[in-house]
Task: inverse folding
């Protein structure tokens, strides 16, 4: 019999996940909500994609702490007329959930839960509970993901002189969103639907996929970053948060920003500046981290400094890093407009 | 250094809380959503009361597993115009949360978070994280509470011959709701507001309090129930769930149902049958449990049998236990009508 150690709060509000030490283990907790009309719009996404992405955005927060996601709780609030009971309910996660409150549906619920189940399987995460209720307005879904970490990496910890890394391309998701707004209807990529357009599908497909149904993976191996977080609201605002937490500054080089050939081709086609997409777009679900040592397999985009946030453009001119990225309540634009800074009033940066 | 035991899923979907064994300890997880227009109505409740009750309903699920609540994650989705930034934000839980996304408010947010903080302090639960977003429709809030138990008690486990207990009065909350519908506006009980009416305040006050801002406590000490759950949707439906999980039946005696003198007086005044309120009302947040041994300090309301659900009325006549209680999606009545079965179509009982 092991001694029953009291649990201990290692890290509370303010990072990608909270950390409790339970029975000698570091357990991570994160929660994210997705609200119809704010985070998703059924005019542009399928229920499957919404369910899939809900799992991914929560898993991303666990990976961002150098953790391994393991369990999930799910909530759904759905207008009754969009949750009619289906006559054919397979005995899976779905029926468990549906049985919780009699929800079910040939409509949103079935497809949404298929997307959730698909992503849970992808990340090897198990659904252990939830709450399903009706709603009077639109659909709202949330998840709490529980993970484990040997040594959680926080936003705090970056030191002047550290190299600044991201784990993959920036701007793909935001570019995919722009394409989707042109297409102006859901694209059922989970069933291999393709779109005919002047832009080849091999350019559009990966960008739409990255926006509608991003897949994330553990950020780094063989290295212990000094600080880390996921890039969910845009590199500019998320780097600002990491630097604030660590009490440092940073310098980012335009020529070092990793950008896909697809994004550059599509952005050019759409007449959007690829650099703005990379800095402000958001929903990249890559990881931003700092390390005193060189790291292979990730992109070094700059360095940590004593203070200030600067951007060195492709002409080698230094300027202040643009203030952009999505914030609820302090911007007048919807989430899906967030990659278009001109559409939104200037935002208060308080995080 | 303790060995790192792998975590193990002890109990998944279907009970009041899920159970994971982590580092040798049983950790409980529960989540509950409250949606405006379904679970609460700002025409009848203050934001403080909504926040307070959100914590309580989650804590109740932990107590119902014989657990001790310890930590909480919170989500809020609020229309931007109801979350304007206040100029005077004290440096508490509130400011942490508000800083997460720039929300804040002289409106809903501040008062709601006061209610959350008050209940967290009452139950000695610590807020460790959350997510705050805007919404396009109404307000939706949810919480995930994490607790610990030496030996979790499940819904499953009741055995024929067990005595059936509840920990306190049934029907008070539902009766309070009826009173509130008559009053037809919020009553600020957290600031000691009282109401003048033909019914004395010492009758109305406790009932309104039980509905608007219930307080729960650990269900039983010195006894290990065979099965337990909280009474949240009404004794009738919740007992049905406990019996289904345990594969047993039950017999309930009308004369044994614990009912407050206030509830009986108010129900009589309102012309409502107190027994229907006790069986169908819901939101009692008492605990229903079974034990082979006599238990002091709780009310024995019947016994567990081999099968069937029966009600012995005050004339000693046996009948089938009435089917009632709130279910999302299978009823056409709002939550606050649930104590009035005639207002709702007959419901499918699938849990």
Result:
């Amino acid at each position: 019999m092991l001694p029953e150690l009291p649990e201990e709060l290692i890290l509370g509000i303010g990072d990608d996940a909270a950390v409790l030490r339970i029975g000698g283990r570091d357990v991570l907790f994160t929660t994210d909500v997705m609200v119809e009309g704010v985070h998703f719009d059924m005019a542009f996404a399928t229920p499957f994609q919404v369910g899939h992405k809900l799992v991914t955005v929560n898993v991303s927060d666990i990976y961002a702490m150098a953790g391994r996601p393991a369990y999930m709780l799910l909530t759904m609030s759905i207008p009754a007329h969009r949750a009619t009971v289906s006559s054919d309910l397979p005995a899976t996660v779905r029926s468990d959930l549906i049985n919780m409150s009699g929800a079910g549906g040939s409509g949103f619920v079935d497809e949404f839960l298929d997307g959730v189940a698909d992503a849970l399987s992808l990340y090897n995460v198990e659904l252990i509970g939830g709450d399903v209720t009706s709603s009077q307005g639109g659909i709202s879904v949330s998840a709490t993901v529980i993970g484990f970490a040997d040594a959680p990496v926080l936003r705090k910890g970056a030191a002047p002189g550290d190299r600044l890394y991201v784990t993959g391309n920036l701007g793909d998701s935001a570019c995919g969103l722009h394409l989707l707004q042109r297409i102006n209807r859901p694209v059922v990529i989970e069933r291999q639907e393709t779109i005919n357009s002047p832009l080849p599908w091999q350019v559009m497909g990966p960008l739409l996929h990255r926006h509608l149904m991003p897949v994330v993976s553990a950020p780094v191996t063989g290295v212990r970053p000094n600080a880390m977080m996921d890039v969910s609201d845009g590199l500019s605002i998320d780097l600002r948060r990491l630097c604030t937490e660590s009490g440092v500054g940073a310098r980012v080089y335009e020529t070092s920003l990793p950008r896909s050939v697809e994004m550059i081709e599509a952005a050019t086609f759409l007449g959007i500046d690829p650099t703005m997409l990379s800095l402000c777009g958001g929903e990249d679900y890559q990881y931003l981290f700092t390390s005193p040592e060189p790291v292979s397999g990730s992109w070094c985009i700059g360095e940590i400094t004593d203070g200030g946030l600067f951007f060195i453009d492709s002409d080698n001119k230094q300027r202040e890093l643009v203030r952009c990225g999505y914030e609820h309540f302090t911007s007048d634009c919807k989430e899906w407009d967030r990659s278009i800074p001109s559409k939104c009033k200037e935002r208060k940066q308080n995080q």
About this structure: The helical segments of chain B are 47-63, 93-101, 108-123, 172-183, 201-212, 235-246, 261-270, 274-280.
